[in-house]
Input
Amino acid sequence: MAKKSLLNSVLAGLSVVMFLVALGMVFFYAPREATMGEVQRIFYFHVATAWVGFFGFFITFLGGAVYLATNNRRWDILAFSSAEIGLVFITMTLVTGMLWAKPAWGTYWTWEPRLTISAVQWLLYVAYIMLRGSVLSPEREARFAAVYGIAAFVTVPLSWFAIRWWRTIHPQIVSSEGMALTAKMIYTLLFSLATFTLVYVTLLRQRIQLEKTRDQLAALRLQHDQAAQND
Output
């Protein structure tokens, strides 16, 4: 337990340091974009949070699939914890996207294919979180949530390919011609991706531990109730 606590503290400290460095790179190292100007700097946070959100939903998909195969609670905890954190990051993606869209498109939101899929995705995972705890049987809840998490993951590849399959005003950063960024922009983006990924890992470890503690408290409460009934 002491080693886990120390590792969590190290990860948290490193996350803070990297986040501060990322902020410095975004605002002082990366050059000002010629067309959009300063508002383009939101891009580094927007892409990084989107990546972490998608990755979090993939872990939910993976954890749900393994839980269905093994019926091991640890995988259900992983899936649930990752979904919560992934939803937080996708929410940040939507917010930063709207802040970028207003000066770029003249509106905070438009129902083009990519954004429509993003809205549906957000609602699906909000429903996933609401689903947890709504089923009386914990095992049935976990199995139902696992199936739901697997099905909801289809929004991730749909979101990625939307700007490649359909007409959309959403910019395509990565294309067959490569990334339309300068070297300093690419370094800043990659560092932001690494930083937000580390933040995800740090939060995930904390959330898993919290869920395990909740299970332990529930088991103790059950033992107490059973002992009271026997008395």
